[in-house]
Amino acid sequence: MKKFTHVFLMLFLLLVVAEAGMASDSILIKNGTIVPIKGGSNMVGDLLIENGKISQIGKNIKAPTGAEVIDASGKFVYPGLVAVMTAIGVTGYPRAGNDTDEVGTSTPQMDPYDAINPEDDCIEVTRMGGVTTVQTISGSRSVINGKSVVMHLGGTLAEDMIARRYVAQIFNMGATEQNKYPSTRPGVVSYLKTKLNQAKDFAKKQNEKDQKSEKGKKSENDKEDFSKRDLAMEALVPVVTGKIPALFITNNEVTIRNALAIIEEYKLKGIIRAGSGILKYADRIAKANIPVIWAGTESVPQRWESHDLNFHTAAVLAKKGVLFTFDSGGYGPGSRNVRNITTPAIISVAHGLSEKHALEALTINPAKILGIVDEVGSLEKGKIANVVIWTGSPIQGRSRVETVIIKGKLIPMTSFQTRLFKKFKKIVGERMKKK
Amino acid sequence: MSKKFFLILTALVMMATLGWAQDLALKGGTILTITNGTIENGTIVIQKGRIAAIGKDIKIPDGIKIIDVSGKFIMPGIIDSHSHIALTDINEATDPVTPQIWMWEALDPGSDSIQKTLAGGVTTVKTMHGSANVIGGVNVTIKLKYDRPIEELIISGARQQLKMALGENPKRVYGEKGRSPSTRMGNAYVARKAFIEAQEYKAKWDKYEKDKTAGKKDLTPPKKDLKLETLKMTLEKKLSVDCHTYRAEEIVWIINFCKEFGIDLLQISHCIDGYKVADIMAEAGVFYGGWVDSWGFKEEAYDGCPYGMQIMYDAGTKMVINSDSPVVGRYLFREAAKVLKYTDIPENEALKMITLNAAESLELGDRIGSLEKGKDGDIAVFDKHPLDTTTKCLMTIVEGEIFFDYAKQSVTARGGSR
Description:
Chain A is an alpha/beta fold. Chain A contains 12 helices and 18 strands.
């Protein structure tokens, strides 16, 4: 059996190599205004892509033989946008049915990897909007929801698209149950803490077991002892040991406070997704270096709050030095329009955020938060070639995306929406001719 | 009532009217008139709530309050022809036919949503019954005069619109209750049955009125029925119809249905599939009411296509961008900018979708939706061009009165954000 596994692994590796080989076609983008976000200043110049990576940025780069040359004169070259907390790949469209939010108050073992549908219509629509990398989460409605993956929106198999298998576990501090425990927010706190305590105990036992086996004292009982496996606990171990971040969904001041208390008590690598009430805790969050996913830009403030409180919040977060990104506009059905991840950034710029900070919040910041900043989030030599050519700044609603390159491959600028457009332009046109 | 009392009352009403409908001049801004191009460094004078003068070299009458808007952009107050703000109740979801419901009876002029919407440069909204019922209630078109008596908000003389809804919502609401309608066929039957009853009701009343006019004696009036009364008004074109529907076949169905019954169908809201039947909508003269790039948030919304606006524009379909939400209602100008992202529709036409077209969809094109002499003094002031999405609204003026002022109502003005 083991031999077979090896053979399969070899075959798989061969496939990966073959795939990489296919991506070796080089692309030279010429004379565009390059906005690298990090590692250099904006300049009019060229960007060379080879073997799926950015190999050179500069002036008058010579096109390698056989390279595809794209004239970007008058255009703007940005790194692909990175969106957190989407349901892309598991939205159920088309024809797959919903695959988000498994039943249960605690389902940390749920892994979107097991359900990614490379034909999800959201993929084409989203990348045509300049978003090239997303975090897909397994759910958001339970206290403990599950794992999340990072994927690039190019490829035909989940295996090709997924960049990281487990980037964060998703907790929801407001996920109260109806007519069963936990039905209150304090209930959620104690429920979650109990699970984390169990996970810590489990981690300790696992650790002891590992040490034993390292010392060669492996007993027959320990070997292949599936009765002692616990997939839920195994999924929480990297969280309580600080290896994998815990992403806390919060919606108000109370849930932010509860999330902060748990992050501090358990020394977790925390990420806070906040819908409102974040400003009161901004200093504490900045001091503790906790990244924020700010989801409240578009929300209507409370009656007593100023109309522009939420429009202005990102500007304050930036000023206080909080590492933040924007929420992708609602998990679930909102994932159809992750291309509108620019909307909260645009609104925030109108209300005091600098364009520089806004662009960082759409690129390098989420890359940092998701732990993939070595690969994406800026246009730098050696990074994965997720490159987008725009007619203007992404911070302008009218700017169009003209070219999308993901992992060094040109992406066709088509989606089911462009196909619908073509189809009905013809149908309506023909009907009008007859009249 | 004594004559004296009447005089005092009249004087009071006049004073109140004069006191409220202020005179105002905006000087030095870039004016986007919508109908007559752009006026650089222009002036608008508002007197008694109406635009008294607009142009480049306008003499401002003495004693008028002048606001310097140099470097700012002036556009007509934005109009949202599909909203649910300022209502205490939205859906009478107890029966698929509820035309007896009048939304002005749920109107709350002190609603915070009015203030928050004003901050997006919006001055007029059609605030509507929900979409639970095939035939819902009568919507109400209002000016956003925050916290004033409702008589000041409701636009007098405006023909109000009866809300209808097809598709998933009535199907779901009543299907889940084990009632009809639970299919699109059921929706169609419910609508047809109601209007046939209304035709019979109208015939009875018409006969009665005719006999009465003819001087016939001993007439018994037919029994009043509040549901059928509203539908009779619709058949008599005293009300028009705004129908919520997503799918192409339903759009064609409602156009034919309204033709058959002699009903004025003005707008199709949530018109996701409009582009598929753009020619048919154009021929019927019905407005597309909807969003720019929404899709897939429910099954029947799957085919939402932002490029489709180009097909509608080319076919001559009249288009309006709606919010249907207290959230998007605060930045309809940003939605209009997206039209430029997905289509080659000219800038002014995109702006029309939140101004003049919306005014026309409410049959108020002669009063609002553009900046012209004689029109209402409804104005939004922006710090940049309203299609530059990094702009923000600085001031919203309704009939010459400032109802929103960024300088006084922003976070910074209110002592910062902690």
